[in-house]
Amino acid sequence: MKVLFYANPQSMVGHKVREIITTLTGGREEENFQTVADLSLRLRQPMMGNFIAVIVAASREELAHILINWHFFLGIRIVLILPDREEDTVSRGHSLRPRFMSYADGDLNELAAVLDKMIGSPMDIQGLDNSHPIQRVTRGNHFLQPTKGGNNVTSR
After folding, report:
1. How far apart, in Å, are the Cα atoms of 61 and each of 82, 111, 141?
2. Within a 10 A sphere around the Cβ of 97, how many other Cβ atoms?
3. Domains of the chain: total
4. Are 60 and 6 contained in the same domain?
5. Residues 146, 147, 150, 154: what is their CA dihedral angle, to the nearest 10 degrees?
6. What confidence tens digit (pLDDT) does each residue in 91-149 have?
7. Between vectors from CA 118 to CA 117 and to CA 122, what angle results, nearest 5°?
8. What is the per-residue pLDDT across 34-56, written as a single tens digit (0 to 9) for each?
9. Helices (H), 26-107
10. 102: which strand partners?
């Protein structure tokens, strides 16, 4: 899964979110943008495969500039971090139809868990190593559980 990441370079939250993304992707499959114009230009180009756009709006004005390009986000999974919890800001954020929305003062651990699931990066299961028979499949909450007759996939 490719991640398109936008944050204003002065945004402290943006730096923290970028660290989370880089940790989850290992720096691969990640494109970073520091201006709305650069992000808009990229969204106009053909995109092959699955994408997630992670957007950190540092202000209401910045969110308004992002919303001008709403039609380029159609078909892309969006994770949106809003600058505040004001009713108008939240309403505008919802117009992008994000899969997940948080706030500049929100819980980054929750954001990391959501991104991990969306990106499908392998996640360490506490106490298990790669030789253990139960391995996490990189999509969803499914785990491979070998049986005598072969592998079964079961949901949790």
Report:
1. 11, 23, 38
2. 14
3. 2
4. yes
5. -60
6. 999 999 999 999 999 999 999 999 999 988 554 433 333 333 323 333 333 333 333 44
7. 50
8. 999 999 999 999 888 889 999 99
9. 36-43, 60-67, 87-94
10. 81
Among residues 30, 11, 2, 147, the alpha carbon closest in space to that of 83 is found at: 11
Read off the amino acid at residue 126.
Q
Element (H, E) at 78: strand 77-82
pTM over 0.85: no
Identify whether residues 128 and 80 lie together within a single domain.
no
Q: Is the CB of residue 8 less than 8 Å from the CB of residue 55? A: no
Query: Encoding tokens for residue 116?
Result: 């991990």
List the domain range (segments joined by +) for residue 150: 123-156
Measured distance CA(47)–CA(11) in Å, rounded: 27
3-class SS at 87?
Answer: helix
Q: 2-7 and 51-56: which strand pairing?
A: parallel
Q: Rounded to an integer, what distance in angstroms lies between the CA atom of residue 150 and that of residue 131? A: 17
Which among 45, 46, 38 has a CA at the least distance from the CA of 55?
A: 38
Q: Please tell me the distance from the alpha carbon of residue 87 to that of residue 21, in angstroms, as a whole number.
A: 28
Q: What share of the chain is helix, strand, coil (3-state, %, to 5)?
A: 35, 25, 40
Average pLDDT estimate for 68-77: 89
